[in-house]
Amino acid sequence: MKIAFFDSGIGGLSVLHHAMRVLPNEQFVFYADEDNVPYGVKTREEVMGFVQQAFDFLVGCDVKAIVVACNTATSVAVREMRHRYDIPIIGMEPAAKKALDLDGEHRVLVAATPITVHGKKMQILIDRFDKDHLVDLLPLPRLVEFAEREEFRSEAVRAYLEQELGRFPLADYSALVLGCTHFNYFKDTMREIMPENMHFVDGNEGTVRELMRQLDARHGLENLPQTVDYYYSGRRVEDAAELARIARYMERLDLVYEIH
């Protein structure tokens, strides 16, 4: 059986990319809801409907687990999906706790989509772990748009990031938490803007580790030739140009993988 990765768009490839490195003998399905991306500026009700439709499709593919490789979809819909389906469902959360655990003295900047930044799940997370009020939140909705059109390194991207990150005295911060899977594509430009004292923290590694833990508990890990099937909003991706586009994203992730 295969492991499904679901995202509003192409950002979740960053989670799949990590999983492919640490699970070389598993087979995967990647579902990008390209018809409805971006989720971060939609209503909660809209996002819930999109996620339900995607899950109905993926469960119909007889997958053994679903990774919701989207912070926005996690914050809105994961709890409801776990009530509906009896398979492991692993969500993403901005790794603010991880960043605070690494350095509990300096400030932490969490970048995410607007719906994640303003969501109840984020507030609960911060109330639980940010006892010293060290976390600041930064919505970066345009990064999703840049990522979806493969605009990774441009004057517009750099100007946007300089403007938004420049709102904060970055010398006071220990970490930038990448609270949206789309944001990983821009680590090189961010690294050029950030001071040396800051490092990146994201939830990809922890999410895949939890996936492995749950599958192992169910004796669900396999030893198969690695494969990936790609779907856009339920349509199998077979067009050569689109497969080449996905390959370019994976190459981009190879490029930024070791940037910390």
Main beta-sheet strand count, sense and barrel state: 6 strands, mixed
Number of strands: 10
CATH topology of the largest domain: Rossmann fold
Gross morphology is globular
CATH class of the largest domain: Alpha Beta
Query: What gyration radius follows from the Cα positions, in whole Å?
Result: 18 Å
Helix content: 40-55%
Strand order in space, largest sheet? 4-3-1-2-9-10
Work out the strand percent.
15-25%
Structural class by sheet pairing and helices = alpha/beta
**Residue runs with pLDDT of under 50 for 5 or more positions:** none
Please report the number of helical segments: 11
Family: Belongs to the aspartate/glutamate racemases family.
GO biological process, one term: regulation of cell shape
Function: Provides the (R)-glutamate required for cell wall biosynthesis.
Protein name: Glutamate racemase
